[in-house]
Prior knowledge:
By secondary structure, the chain is an alpha+beta fold. The chain has 2 domains: about 1-40; about 45-160, Rieske Iron-sulfur Protein, CATH 2.102.10. Helix content is about 20%, strand content about 30%. The chain is built from 1 helix and 9 strands. Strand 8 and strand 9 (about 155-160) form a beta hairpin. The radius of gyration is 27 Å and the shape is elongated. FE2/S2 (inorganic) cluster binds next to loops. FE2/S2 (inorganic) cluster (FES) binds near residues 106, 107, 108 and 138.
Amino acid sequence: MITRRDFYCWGTNLLGGLITLGLAVPGVGYLLDPLLRGRPRAGGYRPVTRLGELPEGVPRVFAVIEAREDAWVTYPQEPVGSAWLVRQPEGAAVPVVAYTAECPHLGCAVSLAEGGRGFLCPCHQSRFDLQGRPLNAVPPRGMDRLDVQLSDDSDPVVLVRFQRFRTASQEKIPRV
Length: 176
Ligand code: FES
């Protein structure tokens, strides 16, 4: 026989349990959200400039703007790095070549060498030609190429997939 006291006791426990469950659901959902959404998006192709803005054979540097995203947060658009673009001659297999501006030696920003006939890193004097090949023994490898696509417009947009690579390594190894 259930006494009134037992009934109130069970009822109170049941009500407390339901309230606790109601409060726990959003918290559990928040913690599981990254798993339910899958892995964070990898860096995609970002618009950098228009093909018509690039003079043939003259390197131009551009900031790559991206909205970063980790498991819980999407950050506002901000520069994530810089890329040197070199428009290739008419009829070349690829219309634009892109290199990350991060020096493969220790990661300083690579500049245009005097006269614009190659690249120079001011930190320890790495030098590269316009094809990104090393011209001295300082850098462990050439400048790192980035993937490029063009949009389908009549004045195509140059899209670059920005990536970072390990420095001080002879191999081009993406950093994650
Ligand atoms: S970081 Fe560029 S030469 Fe050392």
